[in-house]
Design goal:
Order of helices and strands: EHEEEEEE
CATH architecture: Sandwich
Number of helices: 1
Number of domains: 1
Strand order of the largest sheet: 1-6-3-4
Structural class: mainly beta
Distance between the termini: 21 Å
Largest sheet: 4 strands, antiparallel
CATH topology: Jelly Rolls
Helix content: under 10%
Radius of gyration: 15 Å
CATH class: Mainly Beta
Shape: elongated
Amino acid sequence: MIEKFIAKVPSRIWADGRPARARQWDAEFNVAAWTRVSGEPGQVQLLVRYLDTKNDQAVLVDAAQVKGDGSALLSGLVRLRFTDNVEQVQISLRLSDPGMLYVVEELYMQRRGTALRPQDKLISNY
């Protein structure tokens, strides 16, 4: 599988709601990406990757098989366990074949249970 960086998630999405002085905390997020794929058929996976003081973690959101030219809506609910200081949270795609080309048309990440304000969501066109 080939991993491709899509976007860095702004801290306002993942850091808001962190318990004060907590060394470890859990948070759930709704994540979705509308992705167009062309070229070779294969599998595409959506990941949330985060780096904290313990290690580099990757959590699978969703996966789909694509047949050459097509689209896939990859979405799911993920639980992230952060430890101490989080350096970065990002969204990535994994592609099963190097001949696969992709375009992420929309990307969404929102903390579960928060009020739906526009600044709380990561929505981008690529």
